[in-house]
Amino acid sequence: MSNFRYSIVAPCYNEEENLNELYRRITEVMEQTQESWELVLVNDGSADRTLDLMIDLHAQDSRVHYINFARNFGHQIAVTAGMDYAQGEAIVLIDADLQDPPELILEMIKKWRDGYMVIYAKRSERKGETWFKIWTAKLFYRIIYSITDIHIPLDTGDFRLMDRKVVDTMKHMPERNRFIRGMTSWVGFKQTGVEYVREERFAGETNYPFRRMLKFAVTAITGFSHVPLQMAMVLGFFVAVLSVISILAVTIARFFGGEAIFGGQATTLVTVLFLGGVQLISLGIIGEYLGRIYDEVKARPMYVVHKAVGFENTPE
Ligand code: UDP
Ligand code: MG
Q: Whose CA is nearest to atom 2 of ligand 1?
């Protein structure tokens, strides 16, 4: 049996300026439910005072529990650890930088009571983010949507409420390259969304520079789609058909005109370079999948915990 009705899970990487405010806002919101809750903070190898603040918060309020990682493992892994340790009947994932308004949790809880198992927050607007980030994100969600079988709702982040059953199911999904929002869609059950305006960060800076965003996008695509692997075959067929047509054209031209229609070294060079490029790209795609298979085969633990404070049971 769960000890708490709700677990609020927040991954934290260098969030010293946001943590107290996060605690204040969450407390304010959760008091309104008049039910039991815990706040699960995951310190993902922060280099600032984030851990000290967690220790203070726990001393002040025993409902604050924390997990301290041995190093930085990344956002998705931090969220996973939080889900592994959370003890509530409903688990809410929220960013620690207050870009996700805690007040929305009450709306999610209402839907959960109506019988929904996953309630994700859909961004109707994003404030304080660069034009570039907004558009690449938009494009990314649409690509994912069109090339995967499971339907990951457009413009949603990890801000969501999940029933215990969903979280327990996800514990049996041991992939190391994790894309949590896709994994929750994959699980199924009755899901719905609530809309919100994504606020600016309360303080600090984003930890998702372009390089990380790109890696994240590749994880999402390779984790949920084989389309990139199949693209090489489609392209292969296309080039093969094109070359048969060219052979015919050249032969016929030779018979009737006597002149070679694809003359010159440039034609040869361009064709060879084009095919070389296509082959290298295909190899790269295979390599991308292969690297990920290798990660899974090694079967290393997903994260290393230095200390977990406030939890009754530790996950096996
Ligand atoms: N985060 C984390 N580990 C990381 C990077 C980020 O736990 O390596 C946390 C961060 O503290 C925040 C959340 O993940 O609570 C989202 O990160 P961020 O705000 O940097 O991303 P953005 O909102 O810009 O996409
Ligand atoms: Mg943020």
A: 75
- The confidence score (pLDDT) of residue 1 equals 46
Q: From CA 134, how far away is CA 137, in angstroms rounded?
A: 5
Task: Parse the chain into domains and list their residue ranges.
Answer: 6-225+301-309, 227-298
> What's the CATH fold of domain 6-225+301-309?
Spore Coat Polysaccharide Biosynthesis Protein SpsA; Chain A (3.90.550)
Q: Kindly list the strands in the beta sheet with 191-198, ordered across the sheet, starting from the edge strand earlier in the chain.
A: 191-198, 118-126, 156-163, 88-93, 4-12, 37-43, 64-69, 305-309
Ligand 1 site, residue 100, Cβ cutoff 6 A: no
Integer angstrom CA distances of residue 92 from 120, 160, 314? 10, 6, 19
Decide: 136 in ligand 1 pocket, CB within 6 A: no
The answer on pLDDT for 126 being more than 60 is: yes
DSSP symbol at 90: E
Residue 238, pLDDT above cutoff 60 = yes
Question: In Å, how far from its chain's centre is CA 247?
Answer: 47
Looking at ligand 1, which residue's alpha carbon is closest to its atom 8? Answer: 74
**What count of other Cβ atoms lies within 10 Å of the Cβ of residue 153?**
18
Assess whether pLDDT exceeds 70 at residue 259: no
Task: Note the residue count of the chain.
Answer: 316
22 Cβ below 6 A of ligand 1: no
Those residues whose C-beta lies under 8 Å from the C-beta of residue 57, and which sit 6 or more positions away, are 19, 20, 23, 39, 41, 64, 66
Rg of the chain over Cα atoms, rounded to whole angstroms, equals: 25
Mean per-residue pLDDT for 250-271?
76
Could you tell me which residue, 15 or 202, shows the higher pLDDT? 15
Element (H, E) at 226: none
Give the H or E element holding residue 25: helix 19-31
Two tokens, residue 243: 């070359």
| Strand residues in the chain grouped as ranges (E) | 4-12, 37-43, 64-69, 88-93, 118-126, 156-163, 191-198, 305-309
